[in-house]
Write a structure and sequence with these properties.
This protein is an all-alpha fold. It has 3 helices and no strands.
Length: 70
Amino acid sequence: AKGAYPEQCRDCEWVRLCHGGCQRHRPWACADVGHPNYFCQSYQMLFAWSRKRLEQMAAKLKDEGRRRLG
């Protein structure tokens, strides 16, 4: 099921970004709901590394948008 995640996914801070990852890489989509996505650790590392950079870009875009409207 698309929204059925293992317990560790439901408690993960990144689940709102990855949504359990691609269904193709979800072992539980076949039968076993107890294992995370094959790339789970990689997603976590990527999101943690990029968080600050993405927040900086979002703030810059928001500021530029205000200046254009201002």
